[in-house]
Amino acid sequence: MKKLIVSLVTVATLAGSMLASVSTASAQWGPPGPPPPPYREHHRHHGDGDAIVGGLAAGVVGGLIGGALAGGGGGPRYVEPAPPPPPRCWYEDRRVGNAYDGGWHMESVRVCR
Q: Residue 111's Cα: distance from chain center in Å?
């Protein structure tokens, strides 16, 4: 599990570095003449996509790390078995010996299985 997390963090880092915005180059020394026109972006997004991609990458990496920490490493765990079902009990009339006179009488006795 640790190798998987390390490899995912490495891939996310490499992907983020490839998607990082690159600023325009400006030459300090050039041929004499008028300066070139200023650089203008010809699209509407103005580099907002880089922030979205970076945020998504950070969220994925953070989620992986947080899940690994919260999950306890994903190792085997001991789970207690379910308790046995309660016994089925009922009352039955049975003949019981009488200790006083040696005779018998009927008595309700609780029977469980």
A: 49
